[in-house]
Specification:
20 helices; ER-bound oxygenase mpaB/mpaB'/Rubber oxygenase catalytic domain-containing protein; MPAB/Lcp_cat_dom; about 375 residues
């Protein structure tokens, strides 16, 4: 496939931009499909050996807590010590005040961020990312119940890493949950690759790369921290400030580092934006499996408390945030004008709140402070 030319116009998911020298050519992204978190993989094997020695199995009553085993044994094992040191080391570029501002950004626009996260991040982009989808369906993605559980787990993690600054510092709840996710990713990769050894047709490594590979991780972090800025909030009438972009991207640069994601792709706002745009061009490829997963994602969200939104509202919001072309490829329904009007009403509400917050700092502070309490 021909490389994109610098200066050329690109369009993906109804988002148009110009290709620059900051964007990632395929010759740079394709090899990343075959790279992965080697440190985490080695540590997982050692943790599994230690768990087996203690008589732990996959039985729910004896299932090992790999993170706890890591805590208890990292001082006596060089392989575990390597992972532990990496997790506990805070990079020089981390500015805790900036990361705290990034956390506040999530709650400042909580209603818009959550809606964008669900309809654009999950229903749209995750469904259309073929490599991600292929791993997802091999870990229960064809089941609406499992998908809902996965969605809620992801949202819970998002809450944990944004609830307070102490939560993401070493030893905090968000830091620990991120470390657990890193081990979970290693476990998923290991399980799929073991099945491929005896059943090569089970997962196409040549086409999709190693499961949960480095490119997948980069794409995931870009979805979490960049899509809000350029694909979600602006389409709901909110324009994040330059400071907000720097702060929120810095937060997920650090979280990506904990997940063994190369952080250089998010070192600056322009580089992060170019990374997101590169993922849109290279990674969105709708397949039959994508259509099934999208359908199941929508089923997960229909009438989900506390919003209890309809299928038509989800379709209208998805089409506004993802564009008709991508939604048509995903075989999403076309709702009537009432559903579009309802979603436009949501956009009007969140954009009006945003405008009021910028005019009234005390109101902004109140919104940020009250938003985390709503989850309780």
């Amino acid at each position: 496939m021909a490389e994109e030319k610098i200066g050329s116009k690109q369009c993906a998911a109804s988002y148009v931009f110009e290709w620059t020298d900051l964007h990632l050519p395929r010759k740079k992204t394709d090899p990343l499909r075959f790279q992965y978190d080697v440190t985490g993989a080695k540590a997982l094997e050692r943790l599994q050996s230690l768990a087996k020695m203690k008589g732990m199995t996959d039985n729910p009553q004896k299932r090992p807590d790999f993170y706890q085993i890591l805590v208890e044994n990292h001082q006596h094992d060089s392989v575990l010590a390597e992972l532990w040191t990496e997790l506990q080391t805070v990079p020089d570029w981390v500015d805790w005040d900036q990361l705290e501002r990034g956390q506040r950004f999530f709650y400042r626009y909580a209603a818009a961020n959550i809606m964008g996260f669900a309809l654009q991040g999950f229903v749209g982009e995750n469904s259309a990312a073929s490599g991600v989808v292929e791993v997802l369906v091999r870990t229960g993605g064809f089941s609406t119940r499992v998908l809902l559980h996965r969605l809620l787990e992801t949202f819970q993690w998002l809450i944990q890493v944004t609830e307070s600054l102490s939560a993401i510092k070493p030893g905090g709840s968000g830091h620990i949950s991120t470390a657990r996710i890193r081990l979970l990713h290693a476990s998923v990769r290991q399980r799929i690759m073991k099945l491929v050894e005896t059943r090569p047709q089970y997962y196409n490594v040549e086409e999709y790369g190693v499961p949960v590979n480095t490119l997948d991780s980069i794409h995931s972090i870009a979805t979490f921290c960049c899509n809000h800025m350029w694909l979600q909030l602006p389409r709901m009438g909110i324009q994040p400030t330059d400071q907000e972009k720097r702060d929120y991207i810095a937060l997920f640069r650090y979280l990506g580092y904990l997940l063994a994601t190369p952080d250089g792709f998010f070192a600056t706002v322009p580089q992060a934006k170019a990374t997101m745009e590169s993922m849109l061009v290279h990674e969105l490829k709708v397949t039959k499996t994508s259509q099934v997963v999208c359908y199941n994602f929508i089923n997960c969200l229909v009438d989900l408390p506390p919003s209890n939104v309809s299928r038509e509202f989800i379709a209208a919001g998805s089409r506004i945030l993802n564009g008709d072309q991508l939604c048509d490829e995903l075989e999403m329904s076309r709702p009537g004008w009432v559903s579009y009007a309802c979603f436009k009403g949501h956009c009007w509400l969140v954009s009006s709140l945003s405008a009021a917050q910028r005019l009234i700092p005390a109101f902004d502070a109140w919104i940020i402070d009250v938003s985390p309490t709503l989850r309780r």
